[in-house]
Amino acid sequence: MEHTSIRLATAKDAETIAQIINSAWQTAYAGIVPQAYLDSLKEIPRAQRLTEGLEQFPDLRYYLFEEDGIPVGTASLHPTHDEDLTGTAEFTFFYFLPSVWRRGYGRLLLDRLKEDARGRGFRNICCWVLKENTHAISFYESQGMLRDGKRQTITIGEPLEVVRCFSQL
Prior knowledge:
Elements: E1 4-8, H1 14-28, H2 35-39, H3 43-56, E2 61-67, E3 70-79, E4 88-90, E5 94-96, H4 105-119, E6 124-130, H5 134-142, E7 146-155, E8 159-168
Parallel strand pairs: 4-6
Antiparallel strand pairs: 1-2, 2-3, 3-4, 3-5, 6-8, 7-8
Helix pairs in contact: 1-3
């Protein structure tokens, strides 16, 4: 049985977070995001953006999920920028290394995000998910985060549609 823990990450963890995100993207988004884009992912530019985010936004938090002391998952949490939502926390990334998928770790990390959001005074939580990422949508829905009908188009190598998942805390 693995020992797991979740801790707040710091700028020193940015490279590790970037590696987890890129590894997850290359598996989860295969067939959704253009393969040329996935093949071009590099940890250093993403790590720099992650570090800059922590420096520029004091309300932004990064988390690391560790299995036996080794980081295998990561997430973010911050006030949403969605103008139609008030009192709402948002996570813009929520990823695990593919080698630990389907172990129940996602539920544990999402529970921690919800707990921390409540502790920071938020009443709701949301995230945006690629519409074609049915595995992630199914997971969020199983955890009570339902699609609320909001959609937008983003560009990741090509235009892709995202949907918002939302729940009250």
